[in-house]
Design a protein that fits this description.
This protein is an all-alpha fold. The protein is about 75% helix and about 0% strand.
Length: about 850
């Protein structure tokens, strides 16, 4: 078998070269990262396009370096595999010594150290100095798996020290319960155990670094146990001395954790110490001592946060602290005993974890990950929720809820300003904190104020944020403004529901009232928002998203028109409702023994008529505005549909209500209490004028180029709606005037003749205008008239009436037939076309 010693030595030299290249790549990557962060998160002095171009070039270079480093890592791993293979095949001590001499010379990091880290964690591999007297271990000689190595070298010692700590605690508790030893002796023995374990751990540090770290951390946890017990349970040491000792232990733990560069020390020594109060608890309920103790531990973790980014440590302390507090708060909190204590300590916990989450990232100027942001948000909202509940349960505190919410906003604003001025972090964090400022200001408004002020402040804030977002290219603000738009809109709806539905001894002056003024100011804000949107649509960046832009382009004008329409609608409705409620009359019913209540039903009918009239007028005017100024196709199509809808509402509901007003005028119901004026009849002609205006607006729409090409069937449908409306209105007028002239029994005869004449007119127009659909409509109407005559009219008509109807309709049919024969050439040519 050939001697592989020289080959192995060459492979180690090659490995050293590859590791040097890795280090070089890592340095270049870090420099690129810093340059990217500098450009990406600097204030907006350059245009977005310039910054984007620079960032694209840097990111491309970064991708190339990362790919090279990944490929290089694969080469290093393959090289290690070859070295291990050659080493195992030749078990000569001299070869092993040379291997380790090369390792000592190159100071190569472990496989774990050379794994490719995420971009925000890439750092130059750390080269640790080693003692010259250190015994050189054998590489890959033991025949065990990675899992076995992990269990044997890492997991077992941690489990062991945890069991020892638990055993000490259980033994101490058992001795306490059975009175074996005095309290002072227990404390002294506890300190001796802790100090002994600490000294033993420190002694083993040189040769057994990991094992030593576990022992030291366990010793620290025991020292915490004993100190807490000496003060909290036995009162053997004064408070100042006890907390002084805890500060010393915390400082020692921080120094040890950083010196060893081991999270395990912080985990067992600090996080593990949280269990002390629960293992040794005697139910005394000394929560101030408990939370002070926890605060000291958290300060130790805070100090570590400035030097190391140990996520598991932060997450553990964060979760344990808030869980302990929440469990205590939900089971033991009372306002009388713990009001001030709770406020003080939730503030301490909040500020401590706030700084912990920011410290390392800000110092190293690293980007914040999603999990960091989530924890920051949870920390803020847990603090606010607890503080809000605590204050609300106190008679004085309830008056400070708005101030508390505002203080939250001020805290985040202060941090936000510090980060911006010092350029301490990425832009996303700046906007996150700015968002928290806005959230808490937004929360402050409804807490401190009520009613219309909430709506106005929210919509004003939305307009401001939208302006900043669009003109300063800060899309975070723009998106935040959308949330406030929705909130302000919901708030306005709530204002309407509360104000306009209450009429008991409260009269609202139409138009001249605070509610209508609030609606007007709300609309002004949305007019401004819509103006900014239209002006800046072409300049918005793709990062906002085309789908979002499309959605916003519909929603913002939609909310504006909705509020504009319903603001006046609510005023009209409120006016007539108040009159109707004021018309209440109670008449004593002697026979039944109670009072009958009556209202003037004409007022309710007038409300419906005027709401329909208003709707016809509003959407007609909107049509002319769009035709003359806006020329928006989407608005035009929606507007067309609404015009048609309200014309149909008028025909179906409006004419029926007008007939009820007519009947009220003619019958004079409860006339001794209510006046029935001739306007019950005259209002129908006001309504007709609005219907005509609506038809004019529809006709104008059909002539507009921005709506073309429209389906030809739409114009046919327009004719159908127009001529149907005319016959419907004429029929209503005939019935009305026959009723006024006191000939109501003749309306059957009159309608049949009217419909027959109108059918003839439609056919004539169809021949003249060469519109087949009019001719068919006329024939169809004549068929309906004949069906009505034979199935409905004939049974109730006298002989003279029957004669008049039959002669009239027969004559009309002859005229129609004559016209078809005379103009058959025109009609046939029209059909061919």
């Amino acid at each position: 078998m050939p001697d592989n010693t020289e080959l192995i030595a060459q492979l180690f030299e090659l490995q050293e070269s590859l590791l040097d290249r890795q280090n070089s790549f890592a340095q270049e990557i870090n420099e690129l990262r810093k340059e990217i962060n500098k450009i990406k998160f600097s204030p907006d002095r350059e245009s977005f396009e310039d910054r984007k171009e620079k960032l694209d070039k840097l990111l491309l270079g970064l991708d190339i370096l990362l790919k090279k480093q990944t490929d290089l890592s694969k080469e290093v791993n393959e090289l290690r595999f070859e070295i291990n293979k050659l080493t195992n095949s030749q078990a000569h001590e001299q070869i092993e010594e040379k291997q380790y001499a090369v390792i000592e010379q190159t100071k190569a990091p472990s496989v774990a150290a050379t794994r490719i880290a995420p971009i925000y964690q890439i750092q130059q591999p750390k080269i640790e100095s080693q003692s010259p007297n250190r015994t050189i271990p054998k590489i890959n000689v033991p025949d065990k798996s990675d899992l076995e190595k992990f269990i044997g070298e890492n997991l077992i010692n941690k489990i062991g020290i945890a069991i020892i700590i638990i055993g000490v605690a259980i033994g101490a508790k058992y001795s306490i319960e059975h009175g074996w030893i005095s309290p002072l002796t227990r404390i002294v023995l506890g300190y001796l155990v802790g100090l002994g374990l600490l000294g033993f751990g420190i002694k083993l540090k040189k040769e057994y670094d990991n094992f030593s770290a576990v022992l030291v951390s366990g010793a620290i946890a025991i020292m915490y146990f004993i100190t807490y017990a000496a003060y909290g349970f036995y009162d053997l040491i004064p408070q100042t001395f006890a907390f002084g000792l805890m500060v010393v232990f915390t400082v020692f733990t921080v120094v040890a954790a950083i010196s060893y560069n081991k999270q395990v020390i912080a985990h067992i020594g600090l996080v593990g110490a949280y269990a002390v109060p629960f293992i040794l608890s005697d139910g005394s309920g000394k929560v101030a001592i408990l939370f002070s103790y926890m605060s000291i531990i958290n300060v130790g973790i805070l100090v570590i946060a400035f030097k190391r980014y140990w996520k598991p440590l932060y997450y553990s302390s964060y979760a344990i602290t808030w869980i302990i507090f929440l469990v205590w708060f939900s089971t033991s909190y009372t306002v009388a005993n713990y009001y001030a204590v709770s406020l003080i300590f939730i503030s301490i916990f909040f500020v401590t974890f706030y700084i912990i989450f920011l410290a390392y990232k800000l110092i190293r100027k690293e980007m914040f990950e999603m999990e960091d942001i989530i924890l920051l948000l949870i920390n803020s909202f847990i603090f606010f929720a607890l503080g809000y509940f605590i204050l609300k349960s106190h008679p004085v505190g309830v008056q400070l809820l708005g101030v508390f919410a505002l203080c939250n906003a001020i805290i985040h604003f202060g941090v936000c300003v510090l980060i911006y001025k010092q350029k301490l972090a990425d832009r996303n964090l700046f906007f996150l904190l700015a968002g928290l400022v806005l959230v808490f200001i937004t929360i402050t408004i409804p807490i401190q104020l009520d009613g219309n002020w909430v709506t106005l402040l929210w919509v004003g804030e939305a307009a401001l944020l939208f302006w900043i977002g669009r003109y300063k290219n800060v899309y975070f603000y723009e998106k935040a403004s959308y949330v406030l738009m929705v909130l302000s809109f919901i708030s306005l709806m709530l204002d309407w529901s509360v104000v306009y539905n209450v009429y008991d001894n409260v009269l609202i002056t139409p138009i001249l009232n605070i509610n209508f003024l609030s609606s007007i100011l709300f609309m002004c804000a949305f007019v401004l928002i819509n103006y900014i949107r239209v002006k800046t649509d072409r300049h918005t960046d793709a990062s906002v998203g085309n789908s979002l832009n499309s959605f916003v382009s519909f929603v913002i004008p939609g909310i504006l028109l909705f509020v504009l329409y319903f603001s006046f609608w609510m005023e009209i409705s409120s006016y007539w409702d108040q009159l109707y409620m004021s018309s209440k009359v109670e008449l004593k019913n002697i026979a039944q023994g109670y009072n009958d209540t009556y209202y003037n039903l004409d007022l309710s009918h007038f409300k419906t008529v005027w709401l329909i009239n208003y709707s016809l007028l509003f959407f007609s005017l909107l049509s002319f505005v769009n035709i003359i100024k806006l020329k928006n196709r989407n608005l035009g199509l929606v507007n067309l549909g609404l015009n048609v809808f309200f014309i149909l509402v008028f025909l179906t509901q409006g004419l029926y209500i007008l007939s009820s007003l007519r009947d009220g005028y003619l019958l004079k119901t409860l006339s001794e209490y209510y006046q029935h004026s001739s306007f019950n009849i005259g209002v129908r002609y006001v309504s007709y004028s609005f219907v005509v205006l609506s038809f004019v607006s529809i006709y104008r729409y059909l002539q507009q180029e921005f709506l073309n090409p429209l389906n030809e069937n739409i114009k046919v449908a327009f004719d159908g709606l127009l001529y149907t409306t005319i016959i419907w209105v004429l029929s209503a007028e005939l019935i009305t005037w026959l009723s006024i002239l006191q000939y109501p029994e003749t309306f059957k005869l009159g309608l049949s003749i009217l419909w027959g004449v109108y059918a003839l007119v439609l056919i004539v127009l169809g021949i003249w205008k060469k519109k087949k659909h009019l001719r068919i409509g006329g024939i169809g109407l004549f068929a309906v008239t004949l069906a009505k005559l034979f199935l409905y009219d004939i049974a109730g008509l006298n002989t003279i009436s029957k004669t008049i109807v039959f002669l009239s309709l027969g004559l009309l049919l002859l005229i129609i037939s004559f016209l078809y024969n005379k103009y058959k050439s025109i009609i046939n040519n029209d059909d061919e076309v």
